[in-house]
Amino acid sequence: MLTATKQATTGYWIEALKKNVYSLEEINYFLYHHMDLVYRDFFSDALFDYIEQDLEQPAIAQDLREISLRDGGIGDFVRYLLSESYYYNSRELAQISALVAGIDTMGQSERMKVQGDSLYQSGFLNSALRCYLEILQRREIEPVSDSFYARVAYSIGTIYARQFMCRSANTYFSLAYELSPDPAYARACLYMSLLTGDDEELLSSIVKYKISDDYLDAVRQRIKATRNETESSEEAQIFFQNLEDEAFARDMLEQWKNEYYTILK
To answer: In the beta sheet, which residues pair with residue 14?
Structure first.
């Protein structure tokens, strides 16, 4: 990992990861990408001493000690440390600040959702998907509210929808609605049913969610308009005009491969 601060020769052992870290950036990477594993006891005197002595960051160590003396919560430590890193931009910092709100009182499943949301927003869709699916598997172990699990199911559906797996998406949008009958979940099911072109599935959605003919027509027109706008956009026209160019096609393939591998992380 590229670092902007000192990289120590002696590592700091993170028990939750079963590995050493050697820089402030690596510590922050752990905080940002493993929020479900971060508990109050991580912010200990041993960590503060390591940051002060091995990483030669006495000011940061002192600020952390002051947060501890004020009985600061996990969110306070995380927000401060990430703000001192050059590794994350302002948008990422704003996202994580919102995600860690109230983390001190969260159960494990809620923490895992924070982790999944962070992965999703960073573009690591398959990692986020695994996290969300594990949360649903924990429903009997750690019952939270139905609305919480509905949001998790909706997030799974959204990932499948982004991967053009419409039937899988519809399965989880439907589960979300069964857990918590939010009209947004019903609309998502309707959109997926229309996109699959499966008349039987569409009829099932119309009956299940009591969709009126007027609303169905409005959704169809919206989808049609979106398709037309996409196909007639300047980017699409450039793409179609250059598709036969070998270099353009090769560059486009390389770009898609990079995006695909990012999603799989």
So the answer is: 19
> Global pTM?
0.64
Tens of pLDDT along 82-140? 888 766 777 777 777 777 777 888 888 988 898 898 888 878 899 999 999 999 998 88
Nearest of 125, 131, 116, 178 to residue 150 by alpha carbon: 178
Contact 65, 48 (CB under 8 A): yes
232-260 confidence digits (pLDDT tens): 555 545 544 555 555 655 555 555 545 44
Question: Mutual orientation of helices 90-99 and 74-83 as an angle, nearest 10°?
Answer: 180
CB 102 within 8 A of CB 118: no
Q: State how far the Cα of 87 lies from the Cα of 80, in Å rounded to an integer.
A: 13
* 61 and 10 Cβ atoms separated by less than 8 Å: no
- Reported residue count of the chain is 265
13-27, 51-65, 194-208: which range is least confident on average? 194-208
List of long-range contacts for 118-122, beta carbons under 8 Å, 24+ apart: 118/32, 118/33, 118/35, 119/33, 120/155, 120/159, 121/95, 122/33, 122/92
Round to whole Å and give the CA distance between 142 and 152. Answer: 14
Token pair in block for residue 93: 């910092």
Q: What is the DSSP letter of 35?
A: G
What burial class does residue 72 get, using C-beta atoms within 10 Å of its C-beta: 0-12 exposed, 13-18 middle, 19+ buried? middle
Nearest Cα neighbor of 169 from 181, 185, 148, 146 is 185
